[in-house]
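Thought: the user asked what Lipoprotein looks like in 3D. I have the sequence; next I should run the structure tool and report back without guessing.
Action: structure_tool
Action Input:
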Amino acid sequence: MPRIACSRQPSEPSAAGGRLWRPLRALLAALALALLAACGSTSGGSGGAFYRVQSGDTLHSIARKHGQSVGDLVRWNKLANANRIEKGQLLRVKPPGTGGSASPPPRAASGKSAGGAPAKPAAPIRGITLIWPADGKVTRQFNGSSVLGITIANSAGASVVAAAGGTVAYASNGLRGYGNLVIVRHDGSFLTIYAHNRKLLVKQGQRVSQGQRIAEMGDTDSSQVNLYFELRRDGKAVNPAGALPRR
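Observation:
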């Protein structure tokens, strides 16, 4: 996926530059979608590297549908129990390296990292300082493989704020699995991602300041009320704990 230099954008386009600003905003939105969609297909079909579990599915039926063995699906997805999969869960159904990235988009919080994998220690991140995007309990930690962000649980309508100042690159619900989604672009090639919101309070192209309320927490495309939060640098997910203050 081609990269675009993350230079500072004007808060308001000039009259002369208006014709350029509009396609730039559209390009940023396309970049945001491509960035997240690169995590793999979220459809229930058989054409992508990932498959979203449907009602009535078993690991055996999914393996048969995609021409794989149950053992391979268990190994690729780091499943602790082949008999326990959840509706809405995303499973890799093609070998790593044959399409999509090594990890699917997130699913709803379950209280621990997918497959029981422990969270990796957070390395300090230079170039950006974050504040917590929401109050609540962290129910899911970044592990760098199956979980590429953190999940914060609270009540519906709880405030979601910008973890750092920047420009809203995307604010809509066009990407399955993320619900009402906000992506904020920051200086230094950083993006922050806020998913599953009940209501979005900002628009694409809007400048936001650190701590500004950008959404209300919700459960769109999730089985529980929560905020799924990611930090990406140069398109790659990094552990946000390395830039967040200790709680």
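Thought: the tool returned a structure. Summarizing for the user.
Final Answer: Structure for Lipoprotein predicted. The chain has two domains: 38-105, 110-242. The first helix runs from residue 18 to 37.
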